[in-house]
Write a structure and sequence with these properties.
Chain lengths: 125, 125, 125, 125
């Protein structure tokens, strides 16, 4: 995430926001953020959202996700929102949304997904 | 849908509800509705939700869907809700939710999905 | 599955075939098998394929699946093939294929999917 | 892709390979490639595989994909393989595989996915 220039902007129980500025490193020739970066922040937002529900000995790993790229990911920055739909001792399911946000705050849904995560106890604990 | 005993209970712009009573034909030995029937009403709810946004010469076909089966599909009946996330001239994306509803109205999310549909002009028109 | 008229036609380690005759109960007005029935046999084929790898105290449940409906599901019968891509003590991932098969044996891929299953130890054992 | 250090290593009709060396920029503390980079090369491999089937006025865009992360993405490099399952004038469906490859050539499937793409005619043509 650091490599992409993304940062966590909200952490609540079962919900996390990640912001990714539309810097040249993550955009293509038309100024839109690459699908790969869009997906990566969505996946991360879901993972952190799940993590908020577990104790510090737990890690979560993405089992799978599915994402629809709904519109070109334009704007000043992207905001990915991960929301836990169904927490579980073993498996957790999250909804993933990514918005393109303009400098004036106008928002557009650019990607929507769904993700399954597995909780694992950190090795050595 | 008729074969399963399902019926449309709500039709609004971009949103459709389908109810499936938990009859013996669609339940397994534990009284839960089969995953196949749960998925079928979710898929149909999304398809009809998309159809509400198009004129009468249009049909929609499911390109693909993904569904998480979150909990045993128990209750008096299931309610599937299809909601259009992103309409389009060619492709439409819907969110799919299925709730298990008890006789007293208590509801539980039993499945959640995401679906891509394509609009086609009805042959001969 | 019995309700749909489907039957297991091949069971090998990590691979199961299910055949569904195109009877009127599962076809629509154009003679194609409904997407719901196509998906149901795909999901079942994956579940049984996973089950072949575990001992008799184990059950498997579908966590989620994603399916692309590639072509109208026509023919004399459908054949669903579930193949384990990655077995696991907790989670197993399967590939799902459904072919439309003509009376003369000609085959066409009508649906393709991917499925995640979880192994559970049968209650009371 | 350039940003990640990936390169195309095979281009055939309906099939493309992409190799991503496991450089520090794309690996986490345990030496495994990040899920985001794994998914990005899988998505790209499918997109290029579809592109091989169309004329030079066509572009393809990812509509959606689903990916299972099957194992830690370790090895000397990753190889993503995109294969067209079903080409189409409007929509194309691809299978996505990612292997972790050791220095001695040993291979392990680390991710498997499925992708839907739409063909668009390049603006201005």
């Amino acid at each position: 995430m650091t490599h992409l220039g993304a940062r966590l902007t909200h952490i609540g129980p079962g919900r996390v926001h990640i912001v990714l500025p539309a810097r040249p490193e993550v955009t293509q020739q038309h100024g839109y953020v690459h699908a790969g970066a869009t997906s990566a922040i969505a996946d991360s937002a879901g993972g952190y959202a799940a993590l908020t529900l577990f104790d510090e000995d737990s890690e979560v790993r993405t089992v799978e996700y599915k994402i629809n790229l709904l519109a070109p990911a334009g704007g000043d920055h992207l905001e990915a929102i991960g929301t836990v739909l169904k927490p579980g001792r073993t498996l957790t399911v999250c909804q993933l949304e990514v918005y393109g946000v303009q400098g004036d705050g106008a928002r557009k849904l650019v990607a929507n997904g769904q993700q399954t995560l597995i909780r694992v106890v950190r090795p050595g604990q």
